[in-house]
Structures are given as C-alpha cells and as structure tokens.
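FAQ

Q: What does a record look like?
A: Structure on top, sequence underneath. For example:
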C-alpha cells in the first residue's frame, strides 16, 4: 500500500488550497446570482455578445472550436495531474457539461470572463505549484478514496465502510468538490456565448451545424497536438489565442486573458523536481528519470501520471558480470524477465503484448528467440525504448514493433506464435473514454484470452506476468486462465532480482507436454516449489461486457455513489444559486442529453473492442458520431416537417439491433467491411437521435434553456454510465432506450400543455 502521511504541512497546504478554491467558487456564484437588472452589462468587468460584434458564423465556429478544445484539454490535463479524477470515470467531463449547461441558462446575462480566468489560474496552481506538501496531498487522494472503493487503486486494499474510512472519503470530497466547481466555471462564459449565438441565429439548423463542425475541428486540433507529443504549455497557448480572438474587440479582456493564460503556461511548464525529463505521450504524462550508481546511469525509471510504471534495465550477461553488486545472489535465469524461457527455450516466434521500453523484448532476444513481435500502444514509449534501452532490442532485425492496442492486435492478426508473453500490462486506469483511455480493460477478459489462445502453435505457451498487489487480483487471473485453458496451468510468484527489477506473479498455460518437460528440470521444479502461493476464492470473471478488472465484484463502489450524489447536489445548488432550478428545466431535452451520453459511451466502448482502445480510434469514432449528427441536420433542413416519431422509432429499432447482435459478428477479415457493418449497426442510433434533437430544438426556436437542459442531462448521463460497473456495458443500451422514452413522454406532455394553453387564450 502506498504511504500517505497526514503531516501538519500537508494539512495546512490542503486547507489553504481548499479555502482559495472555495473563495473562487463563491466569487463566481455571487457574480452570477440573479439581480433586478442582470440583462445588460455594468462596468468594464462585464461584457455582452453584442459588444463582441453580435451574431456571426465565424464567431460561433470559433467559440465551438475553443469549447471542445478546452474540454479535452481539461479532461486530459486534470486527470493526469490529479490522479483521483483518472480513477473515477467522467467526473471531469461531468464538470465540463455542468459549466456549459449553466452558461446556456445564463446566456441572456452579462459575460464575466474573470470567472474563467480565475478558475483556470487556480487550477493551474493546484496542479503545478512546486510545493512538495501540495503534491503529496494530490497524489494521496486515491488512497483516501481507495479504502472504500472496492476497486484496486494503486494497491490500496478495499476496507469496510466504517467511521474511519468514511472520514477518509469525506476528506477527499472536501478537496474534490471545490476543484469540480472550478472546472465547471471555466466553461460558463463559453456556454453563455454558444447559447446566445444559437438563440440569435437567423437559420437555427445551419447555426447548430456550424456548432457541431466547430466542435469536430476542436477535437481534431487537440488530437493532432497529442499525436505531436506537445505538452500542456502548447495546449494552453493555442487556447489563449482562441480566447483572445473571441474577445479581441475588448482590449482589457483580450490582454487579461493573455496574461492569465501566460500564468497557466508558466505553471504547467515547471519541470519535474527530481530532474527527470517530462513527456506528454498520446496517452499519458510520462516522466523519465535516470537511476545512477557510483556515477554511472544503470537504469531509467518511468513515472506515469504520478505513479510508477516501469524501468529500463540492462540484463545482458556482460553488464551483470561487471556489476554483481546490483544483482545480489539471484542467478540471471531466475530474473523475472528471463523466467519465461525456462519453460520454452529458444522459441521460433514470440509475441510480447505491452512491450513498453523493451525489457521483455531484450529478454526474448537473449534467450534465443528467432522472431519477436512487440506490441505497444504508446509510440513515444517505443521511441524512448529505441533511444535509451541499453541492449537496443528494437534495433534488432529479429524484432518487429507494432504500435497497437494489445486486444486489437490479438483479434486482427493471422500469425501464430510459440510463446505469447503478457508483459506488465497494468495501467490501473479506469478513466473516461475522453481521457487517458482504458488501455488494458479488454485484455484481461475471458474473450480476450480465448482469442489469444487461438494464436498459439500446438506446442505453444501463454505466459501472463502481472504485478499483483491484491490477492483477489491473482485469484481472478487464475479463474480466467482456468476458464480458457482448463486446470493444467502453473502459477508462482517471482521476487525482484534486485532493486532495479520488479517482481511479479506468473501464470503459465498451454501445451501440457511443454509444461511437463519444463517441470522435469529439478532446479526449476525446486524454484516453483519455493515460490508457490495459494489462490483464494475466485471473484467474478471479467468479460467484454463487464471488463472492470480492478473491481472486486459487480456493483457500485461506495465512493462512486457518494461522490456522484455529491456532484449532483452541487450541480443542483449551482443551478439554484444562479437563478435556475427544476421548474425551469426542459425535461424533454434533459432526457435527450442523458440518453445520448449513455449511447455515445457504449458505442465508444464497443468500437474499442473491434478496432482497439487508441486515441486514433476514439477520435475517429467521435468524429463519425458528429458527422452523423450533421447528416441528421441536413436531412431535417431538407425535409423540415419530418415527424419526430420517425426518429424515436428509429432509435428503438437501431438500439435493439445493437443490443441483440453479438460483437463477434463484426470480426470480418476486411477492415472496411468490419468498419462499415459496425458503423451501420452500432452508430445508427445517433443519426435518429440527431433527428429528434434538431427537430425539437427547432421547435423551441433554438432556445438557450433547451440547450442548457440538454447539457445538464448529459451531466447526469455521464454519472449514470457508472452503472455499467454493476450491470455491464450492454445494459447501458437498455437505460438509453428508457431515457429516450422518457424524453418522448416529456415531449408529449409539453405539447399537450402548449395546445391547451393556446386553446384557452381569448380569441
């Protein structure tokens, strides 16, 4: 378990940080509190859309680009710097939706850019101020929550919910809720502009289409920067340019926004205090630190999002012979990287899944592998392995490196292998699909292991090496192996051979003859006997429908329930304090927003099974969904009186097809056939949902309240996605249908009220 010392400096730093965050939130709420005259700007600290030039399509496009760019920036940046937000799915996304929704509700009030700028600078201070006590507190938040999570968070054991663990959870909430508010207020001015521009557009459908296309460009721009390995300083610079352009006609706000973003750029540019090099890969924040011994660099350590990931080590015989002190008395052939080849010496073909910087690849080469296929999802980690690894495994002619998601490669390759090695595929990430991405969610499932088994040669072996910190994780792995391979498998624990090399738990299955031959070696048999351990009760096995490997059993962890209810309460209070409330909610649009987010979440999760959980796939899927929305806009613009009932019937039929057709039916050998068939079945509900939304939005004359209700519904939908931790991902389709039916009922009730009121008006 990670150490978290609650010292006086930590308490003082945390208290001051929370106090400042609360004051900024209070300032924002006070500014947006309704008053007798809040329709026109007063003073130089406020402005209106008219002062920015009124309605124009270029301004709508720019604010749409800036909004989605900032949303993705915040989601990835906050989830990387404050690990708690990476462990609890969608909470940053929910905060963004809350801010957008509040902004739409407040679109007729003056815009206060100071709300965004103060919130941004405060967040940058929390994430990047070089204060050790603050970093210690932020990194310790997962430990405070992990005790009651029933989810394995960085090795934190799940403890019973009692007064002590509840106090830990409340302590984390005391920190999280003000941060949640800061994230939300960043987006209120953006939401105000978008809501006002859509409401004042002459051609509403055209304006909404421009909004969607601008959002699509914002996603593309941010994704491009991620693939160019650009750091947050560049992200903030691009955002600063867009915000400055939006407020260009107001010199005070133009230069204040530039100044605030420059402060953020300076804070996020602070380097690693230990002297390591910081990289922002397409998936994560990566810090590389050299490890020296007597003035010589003997290893490189990788830290990902504040947590240890791996080391680059030199296990060549020459280095080991010249540095015996670093390896102690452990023979090289008992090193965890070399152990697989005690069971299969000199294999003709090896597949390494999660090859990382190359330690397992180097081990395969040292042990006589004729051909090695190394699969790694992160291209920058591969590059660092090529540049830094002491044995240069990726330079070997015998190695073929593949940049891909492990599950995607397993499902799509036609090769067969003598030995398949699961490296330490251990991301500990259960984040939003917009964020760091669940790198290994679909690797440790029954279906994934069955697919891997098909890649083995008749005499082949599959070896899973895992950093087990919780006993039930080992029991789950054994249950998965037993389900796929039967009872004939080997498991043992291997201690690290030195402080340079971490240990692991091994599970080995496959050819019975190969295992029997290996066990006939007396030395190996004695080693296995010394390192044996007992397996406990096997928890629920992970499947493609319930892939939550780090969760003990299906259900909603107490921490998720408590934090979700707290966030909903905060959202409701924000709405009440700014003049809104349940009475002003457009329930038809609220349910549409909640249903759409659930629909989108399960589409992205299921597409990830077919094509891999990568930023490329996710970006293409999100872009494809937006294109479908644009297509529905074009159809409604062409056929203005298309009945809404057509959209609802299409939603129900297409969701039913997506629910009942197994994903296995889409694993065609042709990637184009697979893409087209999956899009037609899985994504078609979005097209019909787009028809319902744009027809309804047009009937409401593109009111900002309708858009705000839709975004607040998406906020609730983001929290409801956590139900998949209990019922599975496919169940989200059923919940989405229920939410769309609720929106249909709300629409009919609203229509009946309007007709009744019109019929009772004096004629």
């Amino acid at each position: 378990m990670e150490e978290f010392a609650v010292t006086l400096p930590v308490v003082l730093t945390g208290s001051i940080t929370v106090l400042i965050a609360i004051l900024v939130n209070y300032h924002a709420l006070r500014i947006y509190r309704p008053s007798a005259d809040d329709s026109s700007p007063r003073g130089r600290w406020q402005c209106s859309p008219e002062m920015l030039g009124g309605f124009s399509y270029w301004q709508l496009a720019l604010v749409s680009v800036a909004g989605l760019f900032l949303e993705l920036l915040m989601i990835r940046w906050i989830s990387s710097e404050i690990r708690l937000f990476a462990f609890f799915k969608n909470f940053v996304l929910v905060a963004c939706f809350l801010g957008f929704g509040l902004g739409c509700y407040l679109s007729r009030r003056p815009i206060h850019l100071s709300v965004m700028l103060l919130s941004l600078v405060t967040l940058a201070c929390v994430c990047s101020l070089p204060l050790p006590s603050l970093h210690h507190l932020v990194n310790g938040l997962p430990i405070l929550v992990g005790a009651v999570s029933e989810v394995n968070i960085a090795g934190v054991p799940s403890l019973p919910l009692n007064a002590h663990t509840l106090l830990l959870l409340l302590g984390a909430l005391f920190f999280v809720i003000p941060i949640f508010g800061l994230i939300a207020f960043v987006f209120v001015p953006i939401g105000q502009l978008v809501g006002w521009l859509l409401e004042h557009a002459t051609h509403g459908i055209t304006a909404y289409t421009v909004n969607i296309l601008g959002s699509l460009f914002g996603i593309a721009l941010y994704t491009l920067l991620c693939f160019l390995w650009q750091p947050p300083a560049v992200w903030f610079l691009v955002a600063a340019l867009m915000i400055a352009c939006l407020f260009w006609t107001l010199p005070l706000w133009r230069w204040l926004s530039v100044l605030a973003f420059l402060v953020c750029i300076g804070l996020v540019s602070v380097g690693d205090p230990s002297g390591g090099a910081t990289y922002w890969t397409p998936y994560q924040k990566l810090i590389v630190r050299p490890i020296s011994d007597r003035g010589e660099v003997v290893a490189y350590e990788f830290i990902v999002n504040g947590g240890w990931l791996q080391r680059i080590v030199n296990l060549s015989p020459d280095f080991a012979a010249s540095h015996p002190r670093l390896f102690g008395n452990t023979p090289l052939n008992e090193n965890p990287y070399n152990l697989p080849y005690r069971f299969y010496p000199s294999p003709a073909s090896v597949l390494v899944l999660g090859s990382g910087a190359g330690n397992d690849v180097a081990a395969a080469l040292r042990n006589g592998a004729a051909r090695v296929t190394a699969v790694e999802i992160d291209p920058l980690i591969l590059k660092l392995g090529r540049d830094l690894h002491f044995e240069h495994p990726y330079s070997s002619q015998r190695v073929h490196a593949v940049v891909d998601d492990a599950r995607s490669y397993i499902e799509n390759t036609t090769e067969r292998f003598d030995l398949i090695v699961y490296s330490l595929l251990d991301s500990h990430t259960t984040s939003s699909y917009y964020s760091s991405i669940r790198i290994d969610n679909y690797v440790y499932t029954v279906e994934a292991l069955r697919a891997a088994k098909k890649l083995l040669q008749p005499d082949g072996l599959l070896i899973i090496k895992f950093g087990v910190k919780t006993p039930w994780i080992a029991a789950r792995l054994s249950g998965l192996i037993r389900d796929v391979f039967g009872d004939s498998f080997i498991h043992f624990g291997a201690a690290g051979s030195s402080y340079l090399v971490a240990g692991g738990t091994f599970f080995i299955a496959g050819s019975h003859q190969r295992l029997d031959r290996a066990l006939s070696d007396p030395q190996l048999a004695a080693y296995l006997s010394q390192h044996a351990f007992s397996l406990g009760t096997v928890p629920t096995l992970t499947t493609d429908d319930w892939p939550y490997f780090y969760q003990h059993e299906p259900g909603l962890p107490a921490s998720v329930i408590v934090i979700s209810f707290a966030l909903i309460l905060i959202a409701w209070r924000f709405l009440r304090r700014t003049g809104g409330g349940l009475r002003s909610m457009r329930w038809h649009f609220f349910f549409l927003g909640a249903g759409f987010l659930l629909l989108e979440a399960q589409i992205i999760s299921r597409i990830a099974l077919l094509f891999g959980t990568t930023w490329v796939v996710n970006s293409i899927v999100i872009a494809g969904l937006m294109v479908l929305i644009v297509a529905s806009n074009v159809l409604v613009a062409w056929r203005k009186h298309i009945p809404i009932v057509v959209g609802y019937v299409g939603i129900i039929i297409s969701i039913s097809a997506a629910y009942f057709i197994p994903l296995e039916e889409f694993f065609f050998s042709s990637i184009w056939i697979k893409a087209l068939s999956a899009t037609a079945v899985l994504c078609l509900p979005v097209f019909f949902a787009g028809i319902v939304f744009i027809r309804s939005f047009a009937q409401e004359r593109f009111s900002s309240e309708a858009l705000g209700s839709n975004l607040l519904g998406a906020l609730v939908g983001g929290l409801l996605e956590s139900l998949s931790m209990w019922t599975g991902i496919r169940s989200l389709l059923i919940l989405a249908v229920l939410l769309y039916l609720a929106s249909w009922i709300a629409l009919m009730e609203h229509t009946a009220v309007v007709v009744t009121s019109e019929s009772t008006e004096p004629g």
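Q: Is there anything notable about this one?
A: The longest helix spans residues 731-760.
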